[in-house]
Amino acid sequence: MTELPLSFFERLPKTDLHVHLDGSLRLETILELASEQGVTLPATDVPGLRDAIHAGENTGSLVKYLEAFAITLKVLQTKEALYRVAYELAEDAAAENVRYMEVRYSPMLHTEQGLRLTEVVETVIRGLHDAELDHGIESRLILCGIRNISPEHSLEMAELVVAYKGRGVVGFDLAGAEYDHPAKDHHEAFSLVRRNNINVTIHAGEAYGPPSIAQALHVCGAHRIGHGCRLREDGDLLHYVVDHRIPLECCPSSNVQTGAITSLPSHPLRLYLNLGARVTINTDNRLITDTTVSKELWLAHTQIGLSLRDIKQIILNGFKSSFLPFHEKRRFLAVIAKQLDAFSEDGTIDEELLRSLSQQAAHGHGHSTPPTLVVTSS
Prior knowledge:
Elements: H1 6-11, E1 14-20, H2 27-37, H3 46-53, H4 62-66, H5 69-72, H6 79-95, E2 98-105, H7 117-135, E3 138-146, H8 151-163, E4 169-175, H9 187-195, E5 199-204, H10 210-218, E6 224-227, H11 235-243, E7 248-250, H12 252-257, H13 269-275, E8 279-281, H14 293-302, H15 308-321, H16 326-340, H17 351-364
Parallel strand pairs: 1-2, 2-3, 3-4, 4-5, 5-6, 6-7, 7-8
Helix pairs in contact: 6-7, 8-9, 15-16
């Protein structure tokens, strides 16, 4: 198998379905926002801040990994900061040809300076939409409850999801420390979301074993599983996931960083793919894991041994697994499948075909209209 360079993967059209807003800032932006806001950080330069956040380092546990968010959240308490970070995330993703992205975060974590929850949601929606107008990347939001915070707060996040359904928000998630914080404790939030026919994804099978995944599916009604790297420990449940086409939001580098997986070559992603699971590859946290979607796909190719054919299937899985309406998925898939034909196993790219397809897409589709927002009084 010819080993393809990172630059090849940067050209591929792709998705990122599992990316946290508060874990995907630019280091320079954190420093600038801290200076503007008078926030004290553990370091005042890029190398020092990178070390403080442990970007790309193996932290050994999910709890240790999550400590970095205490730093990033300090500067994400104003509308200006939220707008900027949302816009820059979409801009960075578009630069590596991510065509569709689902950004997740928990609005309740951004209210320390008095922002209303509705302001937090609408500001991020505007940032993503303006980036779409400028860079052509489509993005939607997934709002998160937090396992290790009260179920009452998760219910409040679920109410926000219901309020913004069809207005830029496409799903509900449960994130945070997994061990000793079962998803079933947040059943009221999941019940509300499901009664309103809204999509659910849940972090599961990362810091805790297959019972966490089973609970996410059978008790909480998850439509996708975030991570799921310990699913291989229960063959029966694994086949249930495969048979029911339940997508797995794999984040390989993040899984190594948190200690859920010992090394990239030992990641179960290849096993899942060979069994027919609907595997997707995502970043989790661009800053904290020091990664991009292109880098994750390249590592899956060079470290896990996936062929370009495998990578193309994973890319298509990403569009199939999105929380977009069916007709919008079909529109994406029709275009992306043709574009992927331009990329060959020997590393060559049919530039003429890509230009032709880009021209067709430009004539056939314009930018989306701004999302309808709930207007709140000042």
